[in-house]
Batch of 2 targets.
Target 1
Amino acid sequence: MVFLPSATSATSAADVGLKRSHVDYSRYLSAEARSRLPNPIKSIWKAAQVKPGTINMGNGDPHHTLYPISEVNFVVPSIDEHDPVQSWRSGTGEQNIISSYKDELCALSLRTAFAYGAGAGLKDVRDALADLNDRIHSPPNHTVSLSLGNADALTKCFRLLGDPGDSFLCEEFTFSAMTNAALPLGIEWVPIRMDNNGLVPSDLERILSSWDEAKQGKRPHVLYTIPCSQNPTGSTLSLERRQQIYQIAHDWDIIILEDDPYFFLQYDLGMSQSTIQQYGHTRAMAEVLPRSFLSMDYDGRVMRLDSFSKIVAPGMRLGWVTSNSYFADKLDMLTDSSSQHPHGMGQAFVAELLGSNGWGVDGFMKWILSLCNEYQRRRDLFMDVFRQKVATSGFASAEVPQSGMFVWIKSGPTTNTADLMDELFRKLLNNGLVMMPASTFAIADRTGTMGSHINDRVNFFRATFVGTDETIRNGLATFGRTLEEFFL
Amino acid sequence: MDLSHHLSDEARNRLANPLKDIMRVTSECSVTDLITMANGDPHHSLYPFQQIMYEVPSVQDPSDSVTSWNNSGRTQIIRSYRDQECALPICNAFLYSRAAGLVQCKDALTDFTNLIFAPPNHHVMLTFGNSDGLTKIFRLFGQKGDHFLTDEFSFPGMTNCPLAYGVKWVGVKMDSGGIIPEELEKVLIRWDEAKLGRRPRLLYIVPVGQNPTGSTLSVDRRKKIYAVAQIWDLIIVEDDPYYFLRYDVPQTNCASADPDEFIKNFISTLIPTFLSMDVDGRVLRLDTFSKVLAPGMRLGWITSNKLFHLKLGEYTDSSTQPPHAFGQMFVTEMLSEHGWKIEGFCRWLRSLRLDYQNRLDFLLDVFQREVEPTGYASVNRPEAGMFVWIEVFFEKHPRFVRERCSGGSPVVARTNTECLLKELFERLMNIHGVVFMPASTFAIPENALWVESDGHVPLSDRTRFLRATFAGTEDIIEKGMIRLGKGLREFFQE
């Protein structure tokens, strides 16, 4: 009963890509994703675009003359400051005004931004982010789709790839708010052992090679990882580990969900000033940032999730997913069948910010570098105070995180760990300090093959160093004091 | 009333955010000056926004806002600040928020909802617009094997969505006044659970300016439908994007400068909603800014009972998260003392309604001039919305075929209406250069198992309509109607 224009429908990019590379990605999809229909109205609308001069009375879109916003402008830091973040924090720096108009020339007009669009988001914004991707990761052959941030993107990927009864792989301590989101979909998690440097590749290999489909159901085909400033352990995967993990994913045919909101917050970078001067900030950053899974993705098995949440602000509700064009197409169909494309103001803001009237991509990288310096300062302060007030007692220790926002503090109890940690958490609370206990993030192993219960290893706290200096000093003083009370 | 049995397995199995437990324990803690090192947010001093400015129409002019907006009329500047007082400051707006959205925006919309709709006992939750809200609601209540009820002509952009996870639709017969309550009842009475599975328990409707037929449910029909819902324990999903675009109502006296007087008059021009009569808590109402501000706002809200409100909040926390700061800031300031206030927003709505009514009048004029004289089509005058439902008299076509009814399935077509419709649609698009949506795009597939055999005219024989919008410019409308007239002549006189 639905008319889809036949002769006039253009072949989708995904179809062309598929024929060219002869890769069948459909086998990774959930039953739901496979059976999802494209929006018939949008198909007709697309066909109507084909012939110029066609009068379209088919769509119920308000005319742009009725949008009651003719200009939005944003007062942002000037990127010409030597250290934009410091100048912004101290209020001494200059400001820039970034503007988007409905009826005047600008990078992305409100006329376009405020209209209905396709799930992937507006082309100008996708292109700008694809350009950023190219300069940082040089992805082999991927497509960008906009998201409403990484929680949105990730939970959509769960729906895209997971059927009830599926097992997905994850780090044994992980961002449980997200892994919990998969549970009502009938997905179960298989945790992978971690050490100080993140997930242990040999354990990933062990799980896959010893998997018994008769007893355990379908072998896992998805790995969820947070490779930089892993949440909660704060570790960053080395290049060697990433290559090992990618090889294992290749051997066992796994899709890698690379959740990377902290990617741009890296420390001890040792960036070359001369590179900055000669080639700009983007090139200089690209040379020192970690190699992403995306950058080595010749199989098209990586779905990379980037977000503006930690580098601009959480309320941006904007990010981008980079994946092979088939997955991008299917993801867009899911978006068209749910939340729809991102909001116009956010897209307009990003387009203007990264455009020639705004910071540009290099300016954005300069802001990010400035952010990294500020976060590094706080990290260093945290570790200093930690050494003085906490580590000296011997009741806790911590590695220096190379990126992100978290410190993974190892503390006392190694027997009866879960109960003692609970007691310690409450004691800290009574003394006026909140830190996240490791148990909040622990994924219990249900395969029975891990050999040790995670409850024996929850003797950690996740602490953040993104608060004020005062918070860091006072918080750690309280922590040190409380540990002494608890263990003595 | 406990309606928890309506929830899907997925909704029932959903866990609350584990970090919430920590937050609960933290909030129960009696210590003052609690230091938190538990979060993972950037500090607000690092948000690169000091101020955001929006230029909007001034709605305080006694003259019409929309007209003056497009004729260089007065404008108003609304701002969001970091360092100065405003309704939703930047430091608060850009934080991670939970579930229902930022409290300032939620409160502003709750005030508006309470004033305009007077819901008995409901709660407001923010969405990214009605598509977002609706598809979340579908997941909340639907799972594989379930059936949902809706108008027999409905909006596939939305009704296609739950098909992917095994929910099926039952289309209920309509007339020019929308869904027919007696037909709804018939479907429920005749439902054979042995053959079809669980009886449908959710009704999805667009009660004002229905998409695609343009119909509006009368107050009488609403009461009857609500009564049916009570007897058969249905959830009513009231999707109402065109609610404020209702025509031919006695005009509010604009010169009335008194805000309360204006609001009172404005409310009197509105039709009572399902929400306002929802004593059981079985209605979930969806409102959106898409048609009254802009589609790209991507902001709306769901009003529902406490249980559903909490469940939707949990689902939001497990998926999209609450909406973007930009949208929440704009709407909060717009409705506040610093913006239009509720009264000013109602003035804008009134003005929009007049503008769309002008466009409707224009279309009907041109239709009468260019199309009606052909004798091959007629059009309704919709009470509301953005669409007209053009009826095409296919029986006048030389190749129209009607088979004699000789028993067999009550849902199989007896005429070639659908084929002729498809042909007309393609000719109009490819030869005459005008696009209308054919009725078949919107038709919900019928199933003989739930259709009454006696005297039922198959839906395929009744798909004799084209949906046209009057939301475009006069130029588009004029050209479109001229091409339609010409196209019809050539089609019927081949």
Target 2
Amino acid sequence: MFRSKLLVLLLSVEGNCSLKTAIANKVMALEVTQILLNAQSVDGSVRKHAEESLKQFQEQNLSGFLLSLSGELASDEKPVDSRKLAGLILKNALDAKEQHRKFELIQRWLSLDVGVKTQIKTCLLQTLASPIQEARSTASQVIAKVAGIELPQKQWPELIGSLLSNIHQVPVHVKQATLETLGYLCEEVSPDAVEQDQVNKILTAVVQGMNSSEASNDVRLAATRSLYNALGFAQANFTNDMERDYIMRVVCEATLSPEVKIRQAAFECLVSISSSYYEKLAPYMQDIFNITAKAVREDEEPVALQAIEFWSSICDEEIDVLEEYGGDFTTAVSDVPCFYFIKQALPALVPMLLETLLKQEEDQDQDEGAWNLAMAGGTCLGLVARTVGNDIVPLVMPFIEENITKPDWRQREGATYAFGSILEGPSPNQLTPLVNVALNFMLTALTKDPNNHVKDTTAWTLGRIFEFLHGSTMETPIITPANCQQIITVLLQSMKDAPNVAEKACGALYFLAQGFEDVGPSSPLTPYFQEIVQSLLTVTHREDAGESRLRTAAYETLNEVVRCSTDETVPMVLQLVPVIMMELHQTLEEQKLSSDEREKQNELQGLLCGCLQVIIQKLGASDPTRYAFMQYADQIMNQFLRVFACRSATVHEEAMLAIGALAYATGPDFAKYMPDFYKYLEMGLQNFEEYQVCAVTVGVVGDICRALEEKVLPWCDGIMTQLLKDLSSNQLHRSVKPPIFSCFGDISLAIGENFEKYLMYAMPMLQSAAELSSHTSGADDEMIEYTNLLRNGILEAYSGIFQGFKNSPKTQLLIPYAPHILQFLDLIYMEKDMDEVVMKTAIGVLGDLADTLGSNAGSLIQQSLSSKDFLNECLSSDDHLIKESAEWAKLAISRAISV
Amino acid sequence: MAPHDIRRPFKRAAISDQQKRRELSLQRQAQNRTEAQLQARRLASSILSLPNHNSEPQPLESLDLLPEPIVEEPETDAEDISDIDIRQAAKLKGPEARRWFASQLMLPEWMIDVPDRLNCDWYVFARPSGKRCFVVSSNGATVSRLRNGCLLHRFPSALPNGARTKESSRSAQSYCILDCIFHELDQTYYVIDMVCWAGISFYECTAEFRFFWMNSKLVESGACEAPSAHHRYRFSLIPVYNCDHEGLQTAYTGAVPYVKDGLLFYNKHAHYQTGNTPLTLVWKDETCSQYVIDTDNKGQVPNQQQVVLELQDNGQLVTSDDPAVVLGCLNAVFIQETGLHPGNLVRFAVNEGGLTFVDGKLEKADLQCLGKVHRARAFADSYSKIVFQYMVRHSPLRIEHLFASMSMITEKENNTNEMEMVG
């Protein structure tokens, strides 16, 4: 499919190289400056006209168009504005955000005439020497885009050499532009597309440019920013002690530059090094600590923030490594050892972070975009606690005790924030006694403290207490019959406080409810259930519920309270259905909305649909409550359909999720909704742009298949058509494709041998996807994970199809596909990187194949390379799901070969 | 190249509720898909694994890499029959049908002593008087067959796929097998067990589970409603009790809409096991059954107990149990004179000498040959039946014994507790 498209592209471009092109090019070149200026005109009609001319030019003569743009950019006689726009259009002609578009642009560039491309590239390189800074900078970016396309194709091999050939002789501004270009280039190009000797040249030039001996700050800044991108290329250089020492010394020196932007950029490099080269850092940690501590205490905020980020980033690394250890220190399962940098730095690091906590800004809790020293320091403290666990507690407790009762709100808030930050990491045994002492204080502070900021942090801290120290797995409960009522009273009271405080109180209640999830038939929340629900609904109606995410938080909490409720409160959950439906109804009655109001309406509908989904899933989970709920099914479905009619992506998704739950609860009766619902189902399957919507809809198709069984048949032609289109689309996000395959299985299982007519489409798709999934050798973890997902989808499709055809006279239709499927199973088995899910599904397919095809499959299975080994391995698996599937396969196979 | 944004989430839960809902939905869908697949497989495997005494499932070792020469297996009727599934079996006729159906029912043993933990592990209910039969609904029709395979009724019913109606366009896989007793007086099928429902096999399920499903599904289907054009016979559930003092009392004396024929005891944990099983038991006395002592074919109680045994190749006379119990032996001359063949069922009278037990085991039987039995009969008597009938005539196991065993169990448990506390 790709190939044919590519061919068309190639043909259309080839027709362009002619004399005619050259003439048109000349004519346009004369006018292009004016058109580019017009395209930035304040006059809308002039602008529009110019944009159309550009579009026409591009469509009629791409080569000429690009040539004249590069000429425009290169010419110092042209106005800055037309040069900048020319560069920008060039850049956009080489790259796009959407993957499919990007791919098309790459192919288009590669197929251009070589002479044209050379001419454009010459213009670009020439622009780097321009006295105009904007022109140089634009050219840098375009060069990087071209390099991003050409270097992986082994084209433009002379680029890096020519950039660096006379770097020491050129004027300062050219040097700066060259280094900037190298930076962009490293951002665009993957490290494996550049030879090591070229990498060495780039790094040498960049690090030299950063050196304190470099007189120009502009050059030094450009070099430091370029190093940030070039670090990914430096794998080999970082394993060489001398080179690494040199790079580290230069970076550390740059953090002491008198120019703040250079210091900031140098710290950014350190942050990047901390994650890319964690295991190489040991010799430098003492120096880095001194540098960062000085920056945190004395430097300007942008620099200090990067310095804190360095430690947060080290925490990230160590948390990952320690998680891979999984508490088992005897066997080294991780490639990277843990150097316990945080543990070693702890006595100095913690006081430094605690100091930052007192540097809060007024009203930072109301400002969505705020990010300051106190926030960064507190966040880092939380990460440190997760990294070192118990060790942090004695270092932080004195700070809390000293400050928590001080008259200055900053001290009370800082102390509370410190307490909240260390609640994740240390063991519950260590924390629970402290929390038992603190809890009463916190509850009082939440009601009585005069400062909004303190109350915000107090409510957040209560939420953290419930999140990490309350639940069925805790040895000592934090919440007891003695304090439960008080806690709930305080939280419900706080929901009437300012929006930011109320939002945190909702969050605390969320985790309070979550902790009672597995409490058994009787929940301590039951006596308060009605009151809690009522309070949350009241919050959603607050005039200021739009601030601080308050309304969303209230609904999320309501959802969690419902999810974690027990049978005792089923009648009250049931009563909630008409209440939420009424709310949804009201949103549907509003008309003639401004676009702002419409957006709010859509958001609210999303929240309400989400809430209904949770309720449906809760009540649908057992027979008696399901029957009780069914009285509302018609009305609810009707409202969902009206929500769809309002059309908005997020509502669409929420309503779709809710409908999946409804289909599951309704069973075969869902058939009556299909005539009205179908068009929206189709719309969801066509939504390539918002792939989440598409993915959710695919899941709902599965729900409907299981609910309707063979009654889904009348809708299958349309559904299958959409699914096949989705699979063939290169616009659709790849994560949606595995579930689409699984969905084939759902459909076949529902309609049985009626799937016959889709076989000729579905089977080749499955077959080529199976082949595609086998060309991933040497892939990274992400690719392996995707391959497993894809294979699982393919295998679930095969399972569903075989089971669907079982006992049908048409099973012989499947026989031709069996050899390929068995080869696919062989391949999966022999590649050895399948996960448990794929293993279970794969061995199940072997059984289904044997079961449905019977004796026809017997000899094929006996001839297959690895069926026997695969089966034996699964039979001896520790995973009972794999074992169960394997037992089934064994039974089916022994029967197939005994007939 | 602008500075890089390093903001981290602050005082926020890392995951959105919408994302959580999405994930929970996906989990539910994945779970439902797995269940749908398992269901499809369970159905298939229940057909595959219908008890198949003559041909063992192929051992795994034969899964060889080299194709094996296809060996024609010696054809015997028995093997053919054991391979077919219930829907095909419904079409079988004569001895084949008899043999097939006979091997499908779970047959209670007669209670000749009281099982341990009767009051904990067992259910009890009053057995309706009538014909034990299999009721199979499939392809829009319902068929009932007696224990010997003879067709009892063919009729439309409200069971899944049990009648040709518009609503029941179910797949061929959707069929039901119920273990019933047809009660002539009110023309009702009393359902005593459920083997398959709507294609789902219950063979591998405990009695507790089967009874639970039977109760909910049968009512749901409408099969318990009054007869109509698409539903010729009413099906009815039987009240099942935990076999404690009260439950036993209710089953024994409580009023039921049908004529009682003894009590049935089901072990709660037992799967549906075809053939004779000690995990279901039948017990009778005059209070709860008109037919405590076996009658002859004229409906009269014979003076002497009669037993039916199967003649083996070596002349031994055996019961229908598996393994069979040998009650005696005929010499070759006698066999030749009477024209008996191995495999024949032969009726005997128990003579004065009776049955002699040593340590609870039968040691000796004084039997007198009466001749071959009617050919509609499929089985010899079971050992437990012979012993129960013998006990009825000599020293019956009375209801008081059953009640007494319960108080004994309670006492025993109390004793154990005390001992533990002392120890």
